Amino acid sequence: MPQYQIGYSPRLSGEVHVSTAKNAVLPILAAALLTQEEIILHQVPQLTDVRHMLGILRSCGAEVSEENADVRIRGVSVGSPKENALLRTMRASVLILGPLVARTGACVLSMPGGCAIGQRPIDLHLKGLQKLGAKVEQEGGTVQVSGALKGANIYLDFPSVGATENLIMAAVLAKGVTRIENAAKEPEITDLCHFLTAMGGRIAGAGTANIIIEGVESLHGAEYTPIPDRIEAGTLACAAALTEGSVLLEGARTDHMRALLFKLSESGVICQEDVRGLRLRGKARHPMEARTLSYPGFPTDMQAPLMVVATQTHGLSVFLETIFENRYMHVVELKRLGAHIRVEGQLALIQGGRTLNGAHVTATDLRAAAALMLAGLIAQGQTTVSDPAGHLMRGYESLEDKLTVLGAEAKKLEDRINVSKKPANDGEFMAAN
Ligand code: UD1
User: Torsion angle, CA of 334/335/337/338, rounded to 10 degrees?
Assistant: First the structure.
């Protein structure tokens, strides 16, 4: 079981490089199924979720090779995945649905279940595919989608990130024009559209709520480097803000991080865009209000890390989680360290300025794991974060090493999960995002 030990580390300083975004890489890997030609991706991060997605592509018949951080994929002949264990480990596995139906006319998938942070249905994905002319059949835990896709007008009841991505990937090879209204606007969607355009796709309006896709006959190979991870950069920015740090996050895209940077600036942190990335100086001192929203609103993935910052400001901070039903699981663990937080439904009230004391805490989901690592930086003594399901490695490329580079006392104690084999718990845990 992975465990991390964090010692009191009051002042972070130095420079650290931001990895490529997990949430950009996963849909781009799924999109590689759209062509029989070779896809080359650079700077692919070493994450469990990425390993699982590569496993899923292999299970669909694609040839995958890796060299350092470069990945080559060639899907000459692809079809529904032959084995389901990997699909069940990760919500993002549903992203192969759109590409496979568009390319081959059919896909049979084991339905992703709910997960710790919320139910996370895939109704918007399926409704959109039906609009594109697909037949959707659900039986037991399986969903079967088939048919020749035709362009259509689709309105999403909610701007779901995954549904927007799946439908763009389906529409790019559909016959005719597709319009997606109330589409999600996250930078990772724009990045996926840039990648699809590099493959010969015709897409307008990426990054807006109205995306127009003109279907093409076929897509060709491409070489691409996905965007830096705004959530990893944001997590490290919160670490700096907690510790009165002086930190450069090399490669961070500040234009993707506006909502968080406003919060940190209002709280007293100096955030400066630099040609090399993002510089942060000083400490968060003033309480804050944060309401999670779709992009460009404040990201739900930053809620837990920012809450740790709020535990150290003077006064009452108010957080409202509107995206996921059950995303305050880190609160119980933060309280174990001495934080004063009260949760009332979607609201969390954080009484800041309390001294945290090191203790043994448990990671309940990916962003909760990162938040607990941050809390360890300002807790007196030693904090041990147990991560039985390996959440942290799913979405952060050695967060403990990056914190160490910035002068923190942080190390991994033990790791018996071998991600190249089948999931440690036989695929029964569902990834949180
Ligand atoms: C993506 C991100 C995740 C982030 C989330 C919200 C990836 C791999 N993951 O997840 O890190 O936290 O966006 O920014 O990119 N919903 C439905 N029906 C659907 C689809 C979604 O009701 O068919 C609901 C979900 O239950 C949730 C909300 O919509 O309450 C947002 O989900 P969505 O935007 O789809 O998130 P993901 O794509 O799963």
Answer: 130
